[in-house]
Task: structure prediction
Amino acid sequence: MGSVTFDLEQTPVREINHFIHKDADIGDKIAITNAGGAHSIACGCDKELEIIIDGHAGYYAGGMNKDAEITISGSAGTGVGENMMSGKIHVKGFASNGAGASAHGGLLVINGDAGLRCGISLKGGDIVVGGSVGSFSGFMAQAGRMVICGNAADALGDSLYEAIIYLRGEVKSLGADAQFEPMTDDDYAVVAELLSQAGEDFKKFDPKEFKRIASSKSLYHWNSDANQEY
Amino acid sequence: MCGIVGLLLKKPELYDRLGEFMVPMLVGMTERGPDSAGLAVFSSSVGNFDKKISLYSGLTSEGASFNWQGLEGAINQHLGIPAKVHAVNNHAILYISGNPEPVKHWIAENYPKLYVLSTGEKIDLYKDIGLPASIADRYDFKNIKGSHLVGHTRMATESAVTPERAHPFTAGEDFCLVHNGSLSNPNYIRRMLEPRGIKFETDNDTEAACRFIEWRLSEGDDLKQALQACFDELDGFYTFLMGTADSLALVRDPFACKPAMVAETDDYVAIASEFRSLAHLPDIKNANVFEPAPEEMYVWAA
Result:
C-alpha cells in the first residue's frame, strides 16, 4: 500500500488517470493537488483506492467509480460521480448539475448544495446532499436513495420509478407522479444509516425531520382514457 | 458550446493589470470556443473627447494595412470635428467630439467595409476569428487596462464563423452582451423589434437578445427590469454576461443548461463558464467561489 502525490499543474489528468488504472495497487493512497477545475479527474477507478483531490474539480470527477473512495476538498463540476458503480465520493464543497447522474451503486456525499438534475436517472446509488438541490432532481430515478438535508427546487422526483427521496426542507414543487408518503420505521433507519455513512458533518441532522417522496405509480401503465390532446 | 469570461476589478490601483489577469481566463476557454473570440473593455479613456468608436478593418481590402491616419484626416476635414485614431493591427479606436451618430453615418457612406464594433464613452470592443490565444496576441490583450470587461470564445452553432458574428454584440452605447447557448425564438424577437426601427446587422441569435435588452433599456427599463423581460420573452438556452459603463450582469436560463462559475475576493469579481479559467487568479484559494443559480439576476457595480 503506497502513497503518491500528483500535482495537476505539473502532470496532466490523462497521466494521473493512467496511473490509477494501470499502476496503482489496491489500498494505495493517491493525493491530487491543484485540481484547478480540470475535467475527468479520477474517472474510471476500478479498485479500492483512497483518492484525495485538493481544490475545485471540473466535469465528471470520479465518473464510473468502482470501489475507490474519492474526496474532493472544493467544489465539483457537472456530472460528479456520474454512473458510479460502487465506492464513495465525498464533495466537501458544492456540486454543479447532474451530480450522481445514473449512478448504479456507491455513495455520493455533497456537503454543500447540488445543482439541477441531481440524481437524474439514479439506478441504485445513494446520494446525500447537505445543502439544497436544484430543479429536476431525481428525474426518472429508478432505484437508490437520495437524502436532501436542505430544500429542493422545482419538479423534484418527476416521473420517479422505484428510487426514494428523503427531504428535510421545503420543496418548491413536486414533479409529475411524485408524492409525499408517510415515513415508516424502515425509512427512519435508512435515513439514519445514510447520514451516518455521510460522516461527521451530517450528525447534526435528525432522521425524524425528513419526509419521504416516492412514485405514486400513476404513470406506470398507459391510461387510454386520459386526455391525449397535446 | 462557447466560453464566457468576465472580470471586474474593485480597486483602481489594479486597473493596469486587467489584461494580465484576463488573458489566461480567455485562453482557458479555448476548448469551449476555438473559432472566434472577442472582448469588451470598459475604461475611462476618452480624455478631451466625448465618445469613442471601435472600428474593425478586417473586412476591407486593405485589412491590417488600412490607412487609419487617412481616416483621421478625412474626418477632421469633412466633418470638421476633432478626431484621433489609435490603431492596433486591423482594429482602431476612434476618439471624437460631439455626437457619434453623424460620424458613424459618414463612415458607412465613405468606408462601407469598415465595421463599427461599439460606441460609447467607456467601451472598447475587439472581436475576430481564430484561436483565442492568437486573437489575444493580435490585439495585445495582455496590456489592456480598465475597470471591467466581458469576453467570449465562440464555437459557432447558429450562424457562420465571421468577425461580425463573433461576440460580444453591442447595441446603443456602452452596452455589450456575450452568450453561451442558443435561442429558439430570435426571429420572433426580430419581428418584434424591426418595425420599431431597430436594425440588425447579422442573422445571429445573440444579436437578437442584445438588441432586445438594449431596446428595453432605451424604453426606460433599468437593467433588472430588462433582464426580467428576457426571462419572459426569450426562449432557449442561455448564460448571458453583460457589460455596461458601470456594471457587469449575469443571468442563466431556468434550466441552467449552460455553465457559469463566479469567484469573488476583495480585489475582483471573476466570472467564467468553468472554474479552470479562474484557477490562476490571485488569491483564488481564498475566493468565495459559487455557481450562479438559474433565473437569478447577478449585477456587480464597477
Remarks:
- Residues 15 and 198 of chain A are 30 Å apart (CA to CA).
- Chain A touches chain B at residues 34, 36-39, 55-56, 58-59, 74-75, 77-78, 93-94, 96-97, 115-116, 134-136 (CB under 8 Å).
